[in-house]
Amino acid sequence: MDWLSQTTRYLSSDLELFQFLPGESLQIQTVLLRVDDGRVKHEEKTLTSEKEYLDWIEECQTYLQDEKPILLFVMHVRNGRKASTLPYSKATFESVSKKIYQHRSLALAMPRTSTAIFNGKRVDWKCGDSKERSIVYNCRSDTETLPGEDDILLSTTYFTDKPWTFSTMYGCSSGLAEELTNRMKRFMRSAFHPLMFPMIFVEYERTRLMTALSHTSPRLNQRILDLENRLQADKERKKRPSADSNRKMTEKDCEGTKLWVEVSELKIGLESLKKVLISIDDHSESLGDLELRASIDGTNKTIKDSMSSQNITSRIQEMIAEIECKIRTCEGLLNGMALAIQVEWNYHTRRDAKANIIIAHASKQDSTQMRLISLVGMIFLPGTFLATLFSMSFFRWIPDDSADMVSPWIAIYFGLTAIITGATLWRWKTWKAKDSQGLEEFIAQVIDREDVEKGTTYSGDSELTRVNETNSHNESQIATVAGQKKEWEV
């Protein structure tokens, strides 16, 4: 609930979010814009020690007494560490943040690992015996989509009743610091606009995301084409792929999955940046009637009447349109990848289905042969049994003094053989019919159970049609199984 606090200075818990390393190599790029005799003077310095930093802050305090427009911009150059790692002591940070009116709300945005952050709030600062109104902006780079070491923190305080603007950036690279220093030379008058530094932040975030997308999207597009080419090559291949080929395909699949995730994250980052731009645009409208205290010509214009506001609004709309286009590009790549994977999956499914059909056909032939062998054995088994039984010495079918070669009782053997064989075949057929009926009932129960587990309720004619179609389909499946059983029996 710290966001409800009205405290402007950093608390001890806030300072724990920073890492202070006094004695480390330090590089701070500063820009000072001040108006003197109707002209904007630009001063820039590169500070390399903690003492130089404190002396420069004290020097700038003297300009605040003149009540003339002044802008202080401090850029902490990253030294291979996080943006929250500062190469000076905690006491120096507290002293400087107090003198340049840096609000503690920056610390509330620091620990968040999320997409781009922009927030603005009105804050009253105690300056001597009076309170001065201001607008505080805090910006944090996208650390979820692009978790690299190029994120920045930005805190800007724009006073509405005094012509003061203070801005501090943490974690910028030396190249970015040099680029922003040159921009400030070109901005001059426009730099005093309250939304100038938030616009610098969104421009930087746009560059980060667009650069990452320009590196990732061609690779994902190539991966989609590789899937198509692999599918075509697999159709034309006559031999099975080697183990090394399968390993390479697996590595490419893993790489394709990683690229798909990266593009998905970039799409989320672009959508987040679009929301930030919309937020800045809405906030710009709320500043419309606010006086631009840092007007160079001495007249206090409203912000909405300034040329800078019109340029900012125009640029925001341009970036929103560009980001929407890139979001559609990401969606096209993601859908294309999903479609390519689905096509490949369908191809392999059909190929596996063909293999299963061949195996099922071979199994059916084997099963048919086994059934024929069993049927032949069942026909001849009763006769063999009776022949063995009647040939035993227990029976004397021909007298010893008889000259007959064939016993007159042979009809008994053929009669019993026919009766027993017929009874055996009839019993086997009855048992198979009963077994087939039980299988059909079991299949019907399974199908009915699946319908119940789906929890689908039907109402109306269209739903009744669906029920009838389902029942017809189930009946056809049962009839097919029953037909196969009868075919096997025959």
Describe this structure in words.
There is one protein chain. The chain is of the alpha+beta class and about 500 residues long. It has 10 helices and 9 strands. It has helices at about 10-15, 50-60, 90-100, 105-110, 175-185, 195-235, 245-285, 305-390, 410-455, 460-490; strands spanning about 20, 30-35, 40-45, 70-75, 85, 115-125, 130-140, 155-160, 165-170. The strands form 2 sheets. It has a 7-stranded mixed sheet with strand order 3-2-4-9-8-7-6. Helix 6 runs antiparallel to helix 7. The protein starts with 11 loop residues before the first helix and ends with a helix.
Q: How many individual helices?
A: 10
Helix content: 55-70%
Segments where pLDDT lies below 50 for 5+ residues?
456-468, 477-490
Give me the Rg, rounded: 43 Å
The dominant shape is: rod-shaped
The class by helix and strand makeup works out as alpha+beta
On the 0 to 100 scale, the average pLDDT is 80
Terminal CA distance: 81 Å
The total strand number stands at 9
Order of helices and strands: HEEEHEEHHEEEEHHHHHH
Largest sheet: 7 strands, mixed
Q: Strand share of the residues?
A: 5-15%
Strand arrangement, major sheet: 3-2-4-9-8-7-6
Describe the secondary structure blueprint for this structure:
Blueprint: H1 12-15, E1 19-20, E2 28-36, E3 39-47, H2 50-61, E4 70-77, E5 85-86, H3 90-99, H4 105-109, E6 117-127, E7 130-140, E8 153-159, E9 164-172, H5 174-187, H6 196-236, H7 243-286, H8 307-390, H9 410-454, H10 460-489
Parallel strand pairs: 1-5, 4-9
Antiparallel strand pairs: 2-3, 2-4, 6-7, 7-8, 8-9
Helix pairs in contact: 6-7, 6-8, 7-8, 8-9, 9-10
